[in-house]
């Protein structure tokens, strides 16, 4: 009795319905096709009703329909029994794989019989009969024409023994999933379909492929029996590729019929259905079956290379999982590889398949994916994953729902629709326009510093020659002296910035756009008005110039200007989540600790202020809840990451007034006048102090409003802390430049928040106040462009020495040069130059007075007229040359000329040089360095751990591209 069609079977459009005949367009004799369909179901109650509708719409329908239930606990068995013309449902255990379930169903029920009117050979012996097995998943739905188109292609190309349809996304989307599938010899499944690619007929040419998906696979009976079905060792994943590979080896062709469409839900791959019958992770199982498939079918001569390739790939993916804080993924990688290699199932499979080798590998290798394609897909997936996880970097816990307020709605930029698209996009993104202007302005302002040489100033020593020299400086110092922590951080940055000199150029010359970008990352967290956000970020960037950090070459302040907003964004992420069950973000806390470590290293004074503020605020303001603990943790992490420099700061508090790059900021300290101190514009800076007055006045006016915002008060708190710190540091004689910048940053934040809270107002007074801030910023930017990055910062050679003395410091001579500076009426100063001269970090790692006492004693004697033994003493101190730069003291020059053991050497005009006779013996320098390799290695490990924990977590998924299916029983 014919079953009643289910309601809703009109799911398919009339255009999907087939014609009545399956004719060969080439006019070849008609063939009688007998089709046995097998549906395997497991917990498929959510998808089987749609499959039933699709089977009702099929014309022609399969001659026999077999249903197999693999231990389902829902209504799957009942739904299978209600399908049109289905045979009694075959039940097997939940541990039965897809291929085994198909074989069990066929064995129990049998193939469809050939109808008697046609005889055993069809049409009384005149019409050939071909028997087919059609495999269906319980979460797929063939279009009404699917079987017709498959059989039509089978009629046109009778030499093809396996056909597969085009797979599209369930329920009836245009997204392509598969049009045939292949693999690389590295085990990478490749469909040739881009993620999200729509079906526009671009893949609609029938062609031979390595394999087709088992969702809709049509297999000729003799092929199925010859190959003995799917490999029972592959209950899920890769069984279709293994089957197609074996068919190709045995001389059977595999083809895809794109006109036949099957819609596939990919229930297990999307997580809608859990895999049953195994305790192994889906990813681990997929990788293991990928290795098995390649090892069982690849030519024997390639096995050593393939195993080595698997090993290298496993190492790389394991490192990726460890970086992504998913160690279980790395465990799965090694478990899959070692388990497959050691289990030995693939060796037995190779023996069983020797009889299949009728077609050599060279004739079918064109069906495999090339390694370059696999590499491209891996890069695309990695890039996509990184981009996606960066967007989610600080959203690992559920956020509270953001309520769209009227002010937020009004802040959305409204642009006339008749404007060109590019103009509309720019008007909606004012910061993008501002940032491009800042970036272009950087090249214009740096016009005087473009050329050869290195950046230098009175406050900036030259950068090291290469990464090796920088690493040695970061790990070496005189006995009892700790090398500065910022050198190690600068070395890490230099590795991606074309060396130390390139890193210094990027930080100093690109400081304004970099600082503006960092400020935008902070302001976008709590500033709604796009215009206010663009002004605040731009003004913050230009503040780096007004502070004199660029023109004076104060690389410590520049780095602090970039790190401070990033730290603020991380702290905001930790502290703002107060109404959710799970508060804070440990990822943001780790990142905050990294930013604090940078501040401790480059600007210890700012690092100390920020650390105390966060620790006190975390304990008193947030309590010892998760958020408070995270802020305290970030402070502790910052201190740990700069060990042993932290101990040096405790033992020598005077280092707190110093910043990275060169000598202490002597031009910014006790000599600053009160107007300079109050406005945050140091003496010697590029801008007059009254440039900051309008900004301060606007900040004061905004403070007088009744509706003050908490972030506005926070900005004023930062400004006042910077002001107090500046006054204290100035009176103690330390450098106050970084603290002056902290003042300006606080004012910028206060004005930006006030601008945002006011919104688009029509009040003339408010518009005038905002106009003052805007005009002041534009005027300062114009001053920056006109003046440029000049002043104490200049570009030139790393050492002001004759060329032969510069080259003598390198191997093999490795000479030491004693540079003595003494002008008339001034004290004598000296430096012992070796290994390329004093470079970045030399001030912080200067030797102790007792270590240089032998040299000091010799020079003291020379200043008193000399005793005649100074030449021998200099040779004993391993000094090779004595050099006096201009202006040369005549008395000291005469004394050196008369000393035995010293002979005049060539020098620049106005300078003088002497060669020390060291022929009587080898001297020993008092300034031998001690290498702190252990500290640097431990520090590097600590930084790697911190970076890993602040990165987003890698999601471990089945390593197959979009359009494949992860299943056990479909």
TrEMBL record:
InterPro entries: Glycosyltransf_2, Nucleotide-diphossugar_trans. Keywords: Membrane, Transmembrane, Transmembrane helix. It holds the Pfam family Glyco_tranf_2_3. This is Glycosyltransferase family 2 protein. The chain crosses the membrane at residues 431-450, 506-527, 556-574, 608-624, 631-651, 687-704, 713-733, 739-758, 765-786, 934-954. It comes from Kribbella yunnanensis. It comes from the Bacteria.
């Amino acid at each position: 009795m014919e079953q009643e069609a289910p309601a809703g079977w009109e799911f398919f459009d009339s255009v999907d319905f087939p014609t009545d005949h399956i004719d060969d367009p080439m006019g070849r004799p008609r063939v009688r096709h007998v089709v046995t369909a097998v549906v395997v179901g497991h917990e498929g109650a959510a998808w089987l009703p749609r499959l039933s509708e699709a089977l009702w719409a099929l014309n022609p329908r399969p001659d026999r329909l077999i249903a197999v239930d693999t231990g389902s606990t829902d209504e799957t068995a009942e739904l299978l029994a209600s399908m049109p013309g289905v045979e009694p449902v075959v039940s097997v255990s939940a541990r039965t794989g897809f291929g085994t379930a198909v074989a069990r169903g066929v064995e129990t029920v049998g193939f469809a019989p050939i109808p008697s009117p046609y005889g055993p050979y069809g049409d009384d012996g005149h019409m050939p009969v071909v028997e087919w097995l059609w495999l269906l998943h319980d979460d797929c739905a063939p279009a009404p024409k699917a079987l017709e188109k498959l059989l039509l292609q089978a009629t046109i190309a009778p030499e093809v023994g396996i056909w597969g349809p085009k797979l599209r996304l369930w329920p009836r989307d245009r997204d392509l999933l598969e049009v045939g599938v292949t693999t690389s010899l590295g085990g990478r499944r490749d469909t040739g379909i881009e993620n999200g690619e729509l079906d526009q007929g671009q893949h609609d040419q029938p062609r031979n492929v390595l394999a087709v998906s088992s969702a809709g696979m049509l297999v000729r009976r003799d092929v199925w029996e010859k190959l003995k079905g799917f490999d029972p060792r592959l209950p899920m994943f890769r069984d279709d590729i293994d089957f197609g590979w074996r068919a190709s080896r045995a001389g059977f062709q595999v083809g895809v019929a794109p006109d036949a469409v099957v819609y596939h839900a990919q229930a297990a791959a999307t997580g809608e259905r859990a895999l049953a019958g195994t305790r192994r992770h889906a990813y681990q199982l997929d990788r293991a079956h990928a290795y098995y498939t390649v090892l069982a079918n690849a030519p024997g001569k390639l096995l050593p290379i393939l195993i080595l390739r698997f090993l290298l790939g496993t190492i790389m993916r394991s490192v990726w999982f460890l970086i992504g804080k998913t160690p279980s993924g790395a465990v799965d990688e090694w478990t899959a590889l070692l388990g497959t290699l050691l289990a030995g199932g693939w060796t037995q499979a190779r023996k069983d398949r020797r009889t299949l080798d009728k077609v050599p590998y060279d004739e079918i290798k064109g069906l495999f994916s090339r390694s370059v394609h696999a590499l491209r897909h891996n890069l695309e997936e990695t890039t996509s994953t990184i981009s996606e996880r960066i967007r989610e970097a600080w959203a690992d816990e559920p956020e509270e729902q953001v309520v769209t307020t009227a002010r937020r709605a009004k802040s959305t930029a409204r642009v006339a629709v008749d404007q060109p698209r590019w103009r509309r996009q720019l008007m909606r993104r004012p910061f993008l326009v501002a940032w491009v202007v800042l970036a272009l302005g950087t090249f214009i302002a740096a016009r005087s510093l473009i050329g050869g040489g290195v950046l230098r100033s009175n406050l900036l020593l030259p950068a090291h020659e290469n990464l090796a020299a920088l690493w040695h400086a970061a790990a070496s110092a005189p006995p009892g002296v700790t090398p500065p922590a910022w050198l190690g951080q600068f070395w890490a940055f230099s590795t991606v910035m074309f060396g130390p000199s390139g890193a210094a150029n990027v930080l100093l010359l690109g400081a304004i756009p970099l600082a503006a970008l960092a400020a935008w990352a902070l302001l976008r967290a709590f500033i709604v008005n796009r215009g206010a956000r663009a002004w605040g970020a731009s003004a913050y960037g230009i503040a780096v110039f007004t502070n004199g950090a660029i023109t004076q070459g104060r690389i410590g302040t520049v780095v602090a200007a970039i790190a401070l907003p990033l730290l603020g964004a991380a702290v905001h992420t930790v502290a703002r989540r107060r109404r959710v069950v799970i508060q804070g973000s440990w990822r943001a806390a780790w990142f905050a600790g990294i930013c604090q470590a940078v501040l401790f290293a480059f600007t210890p004074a700012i690092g100390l202020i920020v650390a105390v503020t966060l620790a006190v605020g975390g304990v008193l303001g947030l309590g010892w809840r998760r958020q408070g603990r995270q802020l305290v943790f970030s402070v502790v992490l910052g201190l740990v990451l700069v060990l042993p420099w932290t101990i040096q700061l405790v033992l020598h508090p005077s280092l707190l007034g110093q910043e990275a790059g060169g000598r202490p900021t002597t031009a910014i300290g006790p000599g600053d006048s009160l107007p300079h101190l109050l406005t945050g514009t140091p003496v010697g800076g590029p801008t007059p102090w009254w440039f900051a007055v309008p900004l301060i006045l606007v900040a004061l006016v905004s403070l007088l409003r009744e509706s003050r915002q908490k972030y506005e008060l926070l900005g004023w708190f930062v400004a006042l802390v910077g002001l107090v710190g500046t006054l204290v540091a100035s009176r103690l004689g330390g450098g106050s430049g970084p603290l002056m910048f902290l003042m300006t940053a606080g004012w910028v934040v206060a004005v930006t928040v006030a601008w945002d809270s006011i919104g688009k107002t029509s009040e003339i007074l408010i518009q005038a106040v905002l106009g003052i801030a805007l005009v002041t910023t534009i005027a300062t930017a114009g001053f920056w462009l006109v003046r440029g990055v000049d002043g104490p910062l200049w570009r030139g050679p790393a050492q002001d020495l004759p060329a032969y003395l510069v080259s003598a410091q390198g191997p093999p001579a490795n000479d030491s040069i004693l540079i003595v500076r003494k002008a008339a009426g001034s004290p004598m100063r000296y430096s012992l130059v070796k290994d390329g001269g004093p470079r970045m970090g030399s001030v912080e790692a200067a030797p102790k007075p007792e270590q240089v006492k032998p040299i000091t004693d010799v020079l003291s004697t020379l200043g008193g007229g000399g005793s005649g033994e100074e030449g021998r003493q200099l040779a004993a101190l391993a000094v090779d040359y004595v050099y006096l730069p201009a202006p040369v003291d005549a008395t000291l020059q005469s004394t050196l000329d008369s000393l035995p053991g010293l002979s005049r050497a060539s020098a620049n005009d106005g300078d003088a040089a002497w060669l020390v006779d060291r022929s009587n013996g080898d001297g020993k320098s008092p300034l031998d360095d001690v290498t702190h390799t252990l500290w640097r290695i431990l520090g590097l490990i600590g930084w790697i751990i911190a970076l890993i924990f602040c990165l987003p977590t890698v999601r471990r998924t089945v390593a197959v591209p979009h359009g494949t299916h992860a299943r056990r029983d479909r």
